[in-house]
Amino acid sequence: MNELISYLTALADDELVLGHRDSEWTGYAPILEEDIAFSNIAQDELGHSLALYTLAEGLGAPSPDTMAFERSWKQFTCCRFVQYPKGDFAYTVMRQFLFDSAEHVRMKSLASSSYEPLRDCSAKIFAEEAYHLMHTRALVERLGDATEESHKRMKAAATAAFPQALGMFEESEGADTLVKQKIIIPNNLLKEEWLSAVVPILEGASLTVDSQSPSDDGGRRNNHTEHLRQLVADLQQVYQMAPGGSW
Amino acid sequence: MSDTQWETYEVFHQSRRGKPHEHVGSVHAPDPAMALQMARDQFARRLECVSLWVVKSKDVTQTDYQDPNFFSRMFDKSYRDPKAFDAPAKEKE
Predict the structure, then answer these.
(1) Which domain holds residue A150?
(2) Is A144 within 8 Å of A206 (Cβ atoms)?
(3) Close Cβ partners of B77 (under 8 Å, ≥ 6 residues apart)
(4) In sequence order, which ranges of A110-147 are alpha helices (DSSP H)?
């Protein structure tokens, strides 16, 4: 079922790449407690990617290790949003908030998927993402208008991240087949729900965004930024020293 | 020069209902709601936990170790000690 494999792989790629970006803060975050929180979030995202790659493997895709450590960066189908560098902490918080909000609506919608394994998997991911969202939303609401500097940084983060975030809703190859079979609902419906959730929260934190921004699409068609090349090289470096070896 | 660090909160962790909350450490946080989240990441990820309490460190009123009189027992009053029965640390659920 190739369309479903493509769909699951795209979501798994998003989680893997964003989890990797989050992990880049370990040891470097501005606050000890946030260092721990983002390390926690990173581990959870990697766990989600493993669960999704495993679902795809059940349908005939290569193993999760093969998907993560042996594909070329050009074969990944993550959105462009998750591959951008971690930036300052404001950008990381904003990106994670926008991503967590999207996961929230997507995983909730998958609770009524006609494909049972995906219903089960999404319920577990939903429970963990709820905690991430609680955390990042709390940070956005506080940092958005706390001080002049926090507002300036959060405003810049929102301006940069919002059009990038819209790229999360680019459809995978064959998505309309999955919609017809009621395995998923269309991304444009998810996007509407996402917008109605995030825009009021951002505005409540004195951060305005343009819902009509052009979307940073291309990731689902393997049209990536150069950042992904370096990211995948870093991610695969140790594995590639001894491919297939046991650790 | 003012300290720009967040306030600290003392964290108490309950591993199972019926057991007492135990002090496990402290977290820095900007407010109580975030202190609970920080406490979960620091003290409840790897341990079984059903409840967390956070209390601002400055709200903890404590005795002074240097005070020799607060706990002093000058005369033998062992007849008062609860030796006749077991006082269990946990209640039945």
Answers:
(1) 2-241
(2) yes
(3) none
(4) 116-143
Question: Would you list the DSSP string of A202-246?
Answer: HHHTT----TTPPP---GGGT---HHHHHHHHHHHHHHHHSTT--
Chain centroid, CA B82 distance in Å: 24
* A138 reaches B (C-beta below 8 A): yes
Q: What's A23's DSSP letter?
A: H
Q: Do the domain assignments include residue A206?
A: yes
Query: Tokens 């369309």 map to which residue?
Result: A3
A247 part of a folded domain: no
Report ipTM (2 d.p.): 0.82
Please determine, for residue A108, whether its predicted confidence score (pLDDT) is greater than 80. yes
Amino acid at position A225, single letter: T
The shortest CB-CB distance from B33 to any of A33, A40, A138 is to A138
**Structure tokens of B10?**
């003392």
Pick the CATH number of B1-58 from 3.30.565.10, 3.10.20.520, 3.40.50.1970, 3.40.50.300: 3.10.20.520
Helix axes A32-58, A116-143, angle to 10 degrees: 160
Q: Please count the structural domains in chain A.
A: 1
Residue A10 contacts residue A78 (beta carbons within 8 Å): yes
State whether B41 and A40 contact (CB < 8 Å).
yes
Among all residues of chain A, which has the CA nearest to that of B46? A40
- pLDDT for the residue B73: 77
Contacts of A175 (CB under 8 A, 6+ apart): A3, A7, A184, A186, A187
pLDDT digits (tens, 9 = 90+) for A117-147: 999 999 999 999 999 999 999 999 999 999 9
In a domain, A246, yes or no: no
Interchain CB distance below 8 Å, A37 and B38: yes
Contact by Cβ (8 Å): A156, A90: yes
Helix, strand, or coil (residue B85)? coil
How many angstroms away from the CA of B80 is the closest CA of chain A?
46
Confidence bin at B1 (pLDDT 50/70/90): very low
